[in-house]
Amino acid sequence: MTANAPAFSRACELFNDDVFVPLEGILPQPVFVKIEALNTAGSVKIKTALNLINTMEKEGQILPDSRIIESSSGNLGVALSMICAGRGYDFTCVVDPNASARNIKIMEALGTHIVTVTEPDENGGYLGTRIRYIKRLLGEDPRVVWTNQYANPANAEAHRQWTATAIDQRFPRLDYLFIGAGTTGTLMGCVRHFRAHRPEVKIVAVDVAGSVTFGCKPGKRHIPGLGASRRPELFDPAGLFAMEMIDERDTIGMCRHLAQRHGFLAGGSTGTVLAAVLAWKPRLGKEAVIGAISPDLGERYLDTIYNDDWVKARFGEVPRLGFSPATAA
Ligand SMILES: Cc1ncc(COP(=O)(O)O)c(C=O)c1O
Q: Is the model's pLDDT at 328 over the cut of 70?
């Protein structure tokens, strides 16, 4: 287990920062993929959740009778559900219709209260509506505490101290690191670490078309994980080498390619990040050492990305790898 990992006191808080897989066939050289799905809770988000709760406990913001609330497309909700159940906190997760049904079932099994908002916000997403709901509750009950993953520095700090350090230790040489942007906690934590210690590492931030985080036009998105209909407070483009936007059809094409050609059943954000790596193929050079973060696996997307009917209903056809010219192999 990683040297930087805390001494785990509960099984539900375990994570493993040491798994990197060389993925062949996307570029002439291997792409080193950091697999986060082997953490408890099945995603990168256990580290975010752990540091949010630890920090807020330490600062006296969470008390034994606190009622914790968070807005999550699923993975942070699952991770917080586990930690809250383990530590005896009441937890409510505010989700929207894009949240995976499996994640909701897991959270319910862990005793979490689920609230689903269905009214789109002014940008066509649901984040604004989810946050308005939380703010209303905060005004009604003084025991309610919002971990606020979009603005809480403890989110990025988790990834600075754990995720980025683990990547740094694994690669004596690293030229490019591709990272997806949701709350941008993973991204900002890595930017902070590498700017301070290895500024030569070029960080490419990846988001999906329809997200407003990088300043692009809002639009409809269907796959949870990456993207936001409201720019996360944590996001700061300083220190990024580049920002790349990927069409969700390329996400699906890449996910299905990885599953059927590589036996790698990837989650949606992994497909998006690797579609960005492929789009960058002409710019990377054959000698460059490339890393990419894979936040979760595909089991949670069997009814969506990997379901032909779901895909056809939203995109008209099942996209193949190379849907757009940028990702044509
Ligand atoms: C599957 C998946 N990928 C990527 C991300 C984005 O990570 P971050 O919020 O640190 O930007 C999330 C966040 O929820 C996620 O669930």
A: no
